[in-house]
Amino acid sequence: MPAVTMDKHKDGDFFVDYEDKVFEDVQAEEGQKALVTFHTVAFEGSIGLVNILNAIRLNRKGFETSILLYGPGVTLGIQRGFPTLGDAAFPGHQNFADNLKKFMSEGGKVYACRFALQALYGHGEPSLLDGIIPIAPQDVLDLKLIHVRDNAVIVDTWTV
């Protein structure tokens, strides 16, 4: 068996050149929009959190950015906690809420489909985080069409 002679990695080491940015830092042109959609279940994978962070970044780049929570995506925008709402039962428990609140505090808009909220997941509008705008199921398609019409950047997230 070959011997491993390298020193053990330690905090502060890095494996990649994280400062080497290949592409230009694109900023929004006047009036550009972005839409990030979520059809994914909270805590079932990383894409919910990753794309909330992408939405925050798009907003900070100057895009008029909206998030659409529909289907199981509405589970990202409901209040949760244990033993009471707002409490973190484990580290990261409030990641969705904290980052959606940050996004909205920086001017982003979050929409949640009322059909998915009630018919699929048994929640009402009072279950949504403050600032999330409930919309009719017919508005889901129209919100997407508005962004297509306006040549927006659209990031669709769909997991099953």
Automatic annotation (TrEMBL):
Gene3D superfamilies for this protein: DsrEFH-like (3.40.1260.10)
Xref: InterPro entries: DsrEFH-like, MSMEG0572
Organism superkingdom: Bacteria
NCBIfam families named in the record: MSMEG_0572_fam (TIGR04044)
Annotated protein name in UniProt: MSMEG_0572 family protein
Species in which this protein is naturally found: Palleronia salina
Taxonomic placement: Bacteria, Pseudomonadati, Pseudomonadota, Alphaproteobacteria, Rhodobacterales
